[in-house]
Amino acid sequence: xxxxxxxxxxxxxxxxxxxxxxxxxxxxxxxxxxxxxxxxxxxxxxxxxxxxxxxxxxxxxxxxxxxxxxxxxxxxxxxxxxxxxxxxxxxxxxxxxxxxxxxxxxxxxxxxxxxxxxxxxxxxxxxxxxxxxxxxxxxxxxxxxxxxxxxxxxxxxxxxxxxxxxxxxxxxxxxxxxxxxxxxxxxxxxxxxxxxxxxxxxxxxxxxxxxxxxxxxxxxxxxxxxxxx
Length: 229
Prior knowledge:
mainly alpha, Helicase, Ruva Protein, domain 3, Arc Repressor Mutant, subunit A, 54% helix
């Protein structure tokens, strides 16, 4: 029996009896190198593309980009496919490195957008609190600034607020996702706090405003809404 998993702790989730019966040996496959990814792309490109439709350097560029990310062959293949789609939409007969760069930006935008869409409701409120600080000419804010806006938004949406400590955890999660940048700043005897700023492009953040939980948020007639402006 052969089992394949991306979770290196998969066996630990099994019952002891199941692990005992399976026995066997674990093999860990390292990420693909740029050269290996290039070989994979070349073999696929020979099937998918007519001769002369790929500009020189396109395959090696796709391979190097994917190798820098995590060595995932799916990333390399998706990048080449999206670049070809871009060239086709533009009416170009040759896929160029410029098409690959455009595809890379498109894929990264889609990834961040999807990350924002799938945030938990509380994380979305925290992110909205950060954007409200930016709109109030406070682009580099503290955890306290975010939490103050967060409590007001929870009040407007009639949502029970989390503790500041839990909100700080959610800020760290947004930082790990690359949606914001959060660095610890020391104030000497006054203690330390996180200094926070948006990292995702404005176009990505605008997706948050289309979320159903913020429907008519800007136009609420509630007197409490004025606290946000």
